[in-house]
Design brief:
Helices cover about 95% and strands about 0% of the residues. It is mainly α.
């Protein structure tokens, strides 16, 4: 009976903690690999680049709409 506590700890509790740790470590492990290989920086750069392209398109559309309004105003005068 004296060794039951250790047996339960080793056979039940320890594998549960180990399994939970492995599951939690999978996502962070991918993040670490991305950080070390530089993929994270590349992903961030691509995201920012897409955002800048979107802003450029929006600004171009606004500029074209402003020019269109001004040309209409000049044509009316």
């Amino acid at each position: 009976m004296k060794h039951w506590g250790w047996r339960i700890l080793v056979r039940v509790v320890w594998p549960v903690f180990l399994g939970v740790g492995l599951i939690q470590g999978c996502e962070s492990g991918e993040k670490v690999v991305d950080e070390v290989t530089g993929n994270r920086a590349v992903k961030q750069y691509q995201k920012v680049e897409k955002g800048m392209e979107k802003l450029e398109r929006q600004q171009a559309e606004r500029y074209e709409s402003i020019l269109g309004v001004e040309e209409e105003d000049q044509g009316k005068e």
